[in-house]
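Operator note (shift B, R.M.): manual run for LysM peptidoglycan-binding domain-containing protein requested after the automated queue skipped it. Running by hand, logging everything below so the morning shift can see what happened. Input copied straight from the record, untouched. If output looks odd, do not overwrite the archive copy; leave it for review.
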Amino acid sequence: MERTRMNLFQNSFLLHPGRSGRPLLRPLVIFLLVGLLGVGTARQASAQPSPPTPEATIHVVQAGDTLSQIAANYGIPLDRLMALNGLDDPDAIYVGQKLRLTPSLAADMAIPPPMAEAPVGPGEEASRPPIATLNRTYQVQAGDTLHTIALRAGVDEAALARLNDLPLDNPGLAIGQILLLPATPADLREAREAGSRQAAAVYVVQAGDTLGGIAQAHGLSLADLLAANRIAAPDAIYVGQQLTIPPRPEPEAPPPAPLRLGPARNGFFYYTVRPGDTLSGLARDFDSTVLAVLEYNDLPDAETVYTGLELRIPFGPPPLPLRLPPVPLSGTRFLVSLSRQQCWLLRGEAVAYSWPCSTGYGAWITRTGTFQVQTKLEMAQSNAYQLDMPYWLGIYDVGSYENGIHGLPVSWETGEKIWEGLIGQPATFGCAMLTDEDAAILFQNAYLGMPVHIVP
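Run finished. Output pasted below as returned.
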């Protein structure tokens, strides 16, 4: 610009070299015009928008804002915006909240940018840190298949394949491979009970609540709830009050069972009937069943009992239908007596558990003999009778069906358990039935191939 002004000045002066006073006038006018043009140019330049200010570091939440919209407006990934502000729930923001948009130095160090995963070639397994899990695991042995592992563990084969990301038709198991086992109802029940005992909870009093009702709903005594909240008068609670719900007291451990030496004893109790005795009461007192007392005393019915009658009441497991060498018996086995409607879980020659049970009724009488567990399922389904049967242990086939041992059946039509009051008498279509609690214990101790003895 300066160079242009000088050229104009020189040219205007040389046009009139002989005029006095005039040579300076035109250059001066031209110089002023050029100066005004320069000022206009400068003003025009100053009118252009100023360079952008540094990026905002804080956003104040306004009515109608959403976290995803805020992240999009500032060009920030949603997960990074949540990490910068310590948010776990994208909906947990409120009007007036100040959100950090740029991390501090400490935050930069604490929140590294996500790293792209390297592609995994065919046949290669990605190197990932081990997954923390409470699921049980199983190590594949020689000869294992997905089907046999599912049967042995008592889990669903399809669920086992999905959990371990294996194709169901050709899983390609390798010896030593570790498989995660799907959780069973027993696993979930234990975890839920353990979690409920970890810490005290808080309950907010609602309209119509009473302290006694709140205590009963949480399985507590009124005294425990009063003590936990330092309340002297049970009626002095109000709507909105926060009450501390203490953990339930741990149940006392049962006393240890007496040490049993040698094989289990069996035989008969001899009892003379007294006034007021009933057959059901005697069966309960002697840990037997009404059917056993009837069978072993040739009684036609439970009413044929009179004062002075001598009864023979069996106790202990009957002898096993086996010819064995004279050496100690080992291993776990299950014994069912049809005439006594009782069963026993034996470990060696000792009785681990003794339970009442129900076997086949009428034309569906349970087959006698020695069998072995051939199927183990957490829940079996009977299409023939439209029933779910928990803790299923299949032991022998009847045509295209399988008979076994199970807990209380559940009707498909009503969704309710049936035959609950029939334990201790013949009631089933050929299976051996226990209560759910006893069937669960047996299921946990059973294994594929476990001997099952059914005697008359």
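Quick read of the result: The chain has six domains: 2-40, 58-110, 137-181, 198-245, 261-316, 326-455. The radius of gyration is 43 Å.
Leaving this for review. - R.M.
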